[in-house]
Specification:
The structure holds two protein chains of two kinds.
Chain A (H helix, E strand, L loop, with lengths): L4 H30 L5 H13 L2 H12 L4 H10 L7 H26 L2 H9 L4 H9 L4 H16 L3 H7 L9 H10 L3 H26 L4 H4 L1
Chain B lengths: L1 E11 L2 E11 L4 E5 L6 H9 L6 E6 L2 E5 L4 E2 L7 E4 L11 H8 L4 H12 L15 H13 L5 E5 L7 H17 L3 E5 L3 H7 L2 E6 L2 E6 L1 H6 L6 E14 L2 E8 L2 E7 L1 H4 L7 E7 L10
Parallel strand pairs in B: 3-9, 3-10, 7-8, 8-9
Antiparallel strand pairs in B: 1-2, 1-4, 4-5, 5-6, 10-11, 12-13, 12-15, 13-14
Helix pairs in contact in B: 2-4, 4-5
Classes of the chains: A mainly alpha, B alpha/beta.
């Protein structure tokens, strides 16, 4: 029988990361669409960086920054009692940053694709920007939100480099499925590696399939 | 009373343009803004609604300052109490017709208004439907009803009937007129249709390149200009062909192609793309009703 812990840990990480990402990305995407600030291109670049940067680079800098041997890391440790290196919290923070573009980009393009007259109509009716976002803008970009949620979730499941660097490989704590597969292959347990791999393969396949089915309108007839 | 005195530099497709407006609109008036596209008509509505900020000037409504660049006053669009019907209607796709109207209201007191408007605008059968399933004329009615839910003092209509066919237009013109009177509104309408303007409005303001060029009642502007017993249309030359001894000039007048026979001397100096006037004595025209 295989050890289920890495798989459970992977899904815990993906769920927590996705939830945090959703909360962070909506205001961030909103700002990116609305802002004319000179800082905007810089922020946009930073958000997109994880798309092209080797995960190990990100992981390495996290490791350096969060290390208790450093000013920031020791401050966190002493004042807040948080240890980010080789811990689940550290994994979550690293994953949030690493999957950020997968959540922000769909929401951003969804928001900027809405006709401006929709928000203007709501403003003229006396609605605040927050009410307008909640009641008009977000409900009309459900497809983008779904895409963002699923891509961020799937991408977090697929992480390897970042979690290895920042999390180490502590069983039951930071050893996620992708790392477990690598471990099993190293130990020549191809059977176990295959089970993990097959589960991840099928799961991501069905998650992505759901997105394309829903956003392509194939499921509409069952909902009606 | 709406007093506008504003300047705004606009970046349009045809280059930069200075919008310069000095305009007083009496309470209860139905004013039409008329002019070529890009003249600044929509911008005027947006400036008044607070969706666009003037570079400088003042906007005063019933003695209340909405905008004053000198005193740095700029009332948010949320607080201007304006009903605005957008050119694309801007109905919220996620809400049904009734929900669209209810969203526009503030509190429970507007519930009654919503039901009243659904009845007046004949939306009863449509109230549970989503905007995407409605025809253009139906969407237009919803947009008009929605703009009235919060009992605005001012109603702004940006070419509300442009995309509709003639029968529905006439019906909606009635709706606009009755709403205007019923709720004691000051209404500003953008329209290109002279028949519609004469029918609806009591004042017309002609705009060209950001400036007001003429103002007056519709009949002063459109009808009494020159009664001369002639038909006169301006159009664009599409084609000039020589046939035997005469020329046939094809002219596009609004949406219709007209062929006109011309002599050598008339065609001389005429090119495809020229703006021309086609005129004829109108002693005995045929007149019949269009269904």
């Amino acid at each position: 029988m295989i050890d289920w812990k890495p798989l459970i840990l992977t899904f815990e990480l993906a769920v927590v990361t996705t939830a945090i990402l959703l909360l962070v990305s909506i205001p961030l995407a909103y700002w990116l669409v609305a802002s004319r600030s000179r800082l905007k291109p810089v922020i946009e670049t930073l958000v997109s960086m994880p798309l092209v940067l080797p995960p190990t680079v990100l992981g390495f800098y996290f490791l350096v920054a969060f290390s208790p041997g450093n000013a920031f890391g020791s401050w966190l440790n002493e004042w807040l009692g948080i240890k980010l290196v080789f811990s689940f919290t550290g994994l979550v923070i690293a994953s949030v940053l690493y999957s950020l573009p997968f959540m922000v980009h769909p929401i951003q393009s969804g928001l900027s694709g809405l006709p401006p007259s929709l928000t203007e109509a709501a403003y003229v009716m006396g609605k605040s920007t927050f009410t307008t976002l909640l009641k008009v803008q977000l409900p009309n970009i459900k497809a983008s939100l779904l895409t963002g949620i699923v891509l961020a979730f799937a991408h977090t499941i697929g992480e390897f480099g970042v979690v290895l660097m920042i999390g180490g490989n502590i069983p039951g704590k930071t050893k996620v499925a992708s790392i477990a597969i690598y471990d099993e292959v190293e130990a020549l347990n191809y059977g176990v590696a295959n089970v993990y791999s097959l589960i991840l393969f099928c799961l991501t396949f069905f998650i992505l399939l759901t997105v394309y089915l829903v956003n392509g309108g194939y499921l509409k007839r069952f909902w009606k | 009373m709406i007093e506008l005195d504003i300047r705004k530099r606009l970046h349009t497709a045809g280059g930069d343009m200075n919008l310069q407006l000095q305009l007083d609109i009496a309470d209860g008036a139905l004013l039409t803004l008329y002019g070529p596209s890009g003249a600044g008509k929509t911008s005027t509505l947006r400036l008044l609604a607070g969706l666009m900020k003037p570079d400088n000037g003042t906007i005063t409504v019933d003695g209340e300052t909405w905008f004053d660049s000198g005193k740095k006053i700029d009332l948010a669009p949320q607080r201007r109490q304006i009903g605005y019907v957008f050119q694309d209607y801007a109905l919220f796709p996620n809400m049904t017709v009734r929900q669209n109207l209810e969203f526009a209201g503030k509190k429970d007191q507007d519930k009654k208004m919503v039901s009243e408007l659904i009845e007046i605008m004949e939306l009863g059968e449509l109230q549970g439907r989503k905007p995407a399933t409605l025809s253009g004329g139906q969407q237009q009615r919803v947009a008009l009803a929605r703009a009235l839910v919060q009992r605005p003092r001012i109603l702004l209509l940006d070419e509300p009937l442009a995309a509709l066919d003639i029968k529905i237009r006439l019906k909606l013109q009635d709706h606009i007129l009755s709403a205007h009177r019923e709720y004691g509104l000051t209404t500003i309408l953008i329209s290109h249709d002279i028949g519609e303007i004469v029918r609806l409005s009591d004042r017309v303001c002609m705009l060209a390149e950001g400036q007001i060029t003429r103002q007056g009642t519709p009949s002063e502007i459109f009808i009494n200009r020159r009664i001369s017993g002639k038909f006169k249309f301006t159009g664009e030359v599409i084609r000039i062909e020589q046939q035997e001894v005469v020329y046939i000039v094809t002219v596009l007048i609004q949406n219709s192609m007209v062929k006109v026979i011309a002599q050598d001397s008339e065609v001389e100096g005429l090119q495809v793309g020229d703006q021309v006037m086609v005129a004829s004595k109108a002693f005995n025209p045929i007149i019949y009703k269009i269904e």
